[in-house]
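Feature request, filed as a ticket because there's no other form

It would be nice if the structure record came with a short human-readable summary line next to the tokens. Right now we just get the raw output. Example of a typical job, pasted below so the devs can see what we mean:
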Amino acid sequence: MRNFVALTALIAGLAAVEPVSAQDIVGFDRSDFGNIVLNRKQSASAGDIEFELSVGDYNNESIRNYSPASIFAKIGHSVGRLDILTDKGIFPCTAFIVDKKHILTNYHCVPGILDNERAGATRIDAVQFVAGYTQQGVEEGTKKYIVSPTPVEAHEDLDYALLEVLGDPSAEYGMLKLASSTPHDGDPYWVIGHPMGEAQRISREKCKANNPALSNNRLLHTCDTLPGNSGSPVIDASLQMVVGLHHAGSKRDSVNFAIPMADIIERSEILEAALTTQNDAPPVDPKPDTTPDPKPGEDGAGTPPKPDPAPQDESTVLCDALYSEAKGYGVCFAYQAYLEQCQGHKFAPFAQSFINHQCQTADVKPDPVQPDPVQPKPVDPAPVTYLRPWCSASHLNNTERTICGDAYLAGLDERLTQAYNGQSGKATARQQADWRVNTRDVCGTSTSCISRVVLDRITYLETPVVTPPPSTGGDYRVVRGSYQLSSSQCYIVTASRPSIAEAVSFAKQWFPGRSGVRIFQSTNGYYGITLKTVRKSNSEWEISQLKSQGAVPSDSYCSVGGRYIAEVLWQGGGASLPPSNPSPSTYTMYVANNKDGGLNVRPGPGTQYPYFTEIRPGTKLTVIGTSGKWSNVILPSGQKGWVYTPLLSRSKPHVAQCWATVRGLRSISQYNPSTGAGFLAVRTKPSTKGRKISEVYLGDRVEVIGQTNKWARIKCVSGQCRSPFAGSAGVMGWSSKKYLSISCN
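Raw output as currently delivered:
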């Protein structure tokens, strides 16, 4: 009687729950957008009903606990993290792939984050889908997709939003099947997602449909979730299909809530095409034995052998055999025969779930055996016609296969061959081969990237050698130098023109009065007009935003400027023409000591020019001119550039040589990126807000280049830091002096 009263109270409480009005989300710094690992910033939650809940003991484990061949990992391929960049930070949710260009998540994630008072966001700047993030802190194997922040279909009352993805994530990560069947009490479930924005996790222990399974048009389940799980698929373990879209939890009732997938499919005008209700596969035991076989000798010498397990009784052996036969047939009558004999058997719930979902009547007969069809005589296939002669090769890379499957790209490749054969010594065979490997093939399967770089190469080969213009003109001055950016940055290139006059005219027409617009001369004689310099990781979505606003031409792209040999400084442009004060003669200066331990060299006189190299204190320089507080210098290598004059000295300074050994850390055997154990982060600036670019470890030897009160700028010399577990080797960055034993000569 007590259980009945408690159950009645629970049902009454659930029926009284109003539509969710309070959210539970987690926020991260805006600067982390585009990164796989996010730095925690804030959270927002309130009220009795949350958008995530852990029920009892937390039973949510890493998907990496299972092999890549397991059913859990295979289904998890289609589930990813959804990063929502707003003016107040990044708010991650979970989403999953439902067809070639759409992913499904909660309405309260996109666009509903703007309605969350605790988040305080007023606009969504970008949305990104991160697939393949399964191991905490490890970026290998992940892929990022740009997502349109405007849903193609969304309903707030069902808390779902269907978003369009740029590209086809299903080609690499597959898609989940959606079930329109009615959930039943006690059905076994899995929930896969990215709680707290971390690597993928799965809840399956004690994860099932509540009793009752449905209340107030919502699916109730007991699977553990945390902030960030919003938008996770609720998967029926027997069907291996999505039966609900997780979105909320209640502290009072200790259950989680999902929107039944049947309701979403009934409302949707798009998801019907992705609907699949038939599943010929037999039910899968959600608790397979994933323990690896022990290796010889693991139990230790002298360990007595384990006794044989107790023999099973005959009824258990019989039921095991009947269940195996039912799985083999995969039809209703086999599962019904099993249940008639084995109601109390351990696999009975999965057999009953199969019957509830797949069997329409109580008496289903097996399909009659059909005779083998008469096989027609084989017909010789028609000869294959290749778009390019070399497409018949057996070993093609991804870019070559993409060209061979696209008539337009194949036509460009033919034009490229003609341009190369007709060129006048601009590229040797070796140079052309290097271009294919280092430029074209880097595009992978991106058709837009392939077409752009091939067209650039055709233009370069077909353009005759142009005599450089005079270094000065009435309204411009040409500053020669190296303008190639680092691998993490790129210019947004909006157009290319054959003359300075045409390039200046284009810039004035498209970007009147806008600062930051620059014109560069390329090795092919053309002049590229760039809008600004951006981080390469953010370039795709930023260019996409500019194109959608009509702020740049539709064929704009990003380039590191590898072929830029000079910049045109012009009156009225973003890079204004600075007054030049040439010295009557050259003179010698030295780089003075400074806290950073280096001096940036730039292609022009100002911080608006990105630096292309860094020189150490004590370096001897030849000054050939000045402009304001900037000196035009010749480096020991013969290269020219501009440096900040106040950081120069007329006399050679004493430069201390400092070294350090990493100390005070746990052993590398205890390395754990989640807890921060076993490593010291190397960052872009002397602050914990600096982006992590590498790691050093206990006992590593490093060179100390510069120092502040609590931080040291270091570079790895020897030890494990030469092959870091995260980040890049050989970089210079800032680390806490607390863990460095520094000595100087």
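Something like this underneath would help us a lot:
The first strand starts at residue 25 and ends at 28.
Residues 97 and 175 are 5 Å apart (CA to CA).
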